[in-house]
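Input record (Table S2, row 220):
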Amino acid sequence: MMRLWGRKSSINVQKVLWCLAELGLEEGKDFEQIDAGLHFGKNRTPEFLALNPNGLVPTLEDGELVLWESNTILRYLAHQHDQSKRFPTDIASQYQSEKWMDWQVGTIWPTLRVAFLGLTRTPENERNYPGIQKAYEDTNQLMALLDQQLAEHQYCSGNAFHIGDIPLALCVNRWILLNEAFPGQTGSRPTLHNIDAWMKRLKDGTHFSVVAEKELNIVK
Ligand SMILES: N[C@@H](CCC(=O)N[C@@H](CS)C(=O)NCC(=O)O)C(=O)O
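Output record (glutathione complex):
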């Protein structure tokens, strides 16, 4: 049985949980999930640091193999555990998907993260509100770029759902929730119709609901 370390409120753990659900892998049967990180702790113990020296979640154990970096874990799961061929394997779809995963981790998340951490993990009297608003506005621009791309395809890598949709959709989910929770601090959020239609497709046609946050985990 695989073992997934990480609290379910982590965006990066959510990526893995969603992917496992898409692959038909069940908690308790195919994998166990251990709450770790934030108030659960466990991620700074010698046992955990031996698995992941960063002390971060998610961390996945599959037999002797130990992996960290959420997007890499998705790639591994799709490669190794996709018995039902849930994800396309043609080279174009795969690499379009790869492209968006790198864009998520290298471009949009570092931008949105400033606003996210600034509002949900920083005490009120220490928040840098101009910096938070700038980060949110920059995220709006990046979301507009994603929206344009989605005008041409149903999913980020073409006309079928792929692992690349997972990290992006979770960023969109947080972008929306952040604005709902802190409208005065983020500034306005544009309505982007192609993103809305894509999110609806994901909600209707995938296991998005296993991880969909209804509200943000705000640390006071
Ligand atoms: N690039 C890493 C980032 C992992 C990361 O930053 N994880 C956060 C949660 S989203 C974490 O472990 N924070 C410490 C904690 O929860 O205590 C990945 O994609 O897996």
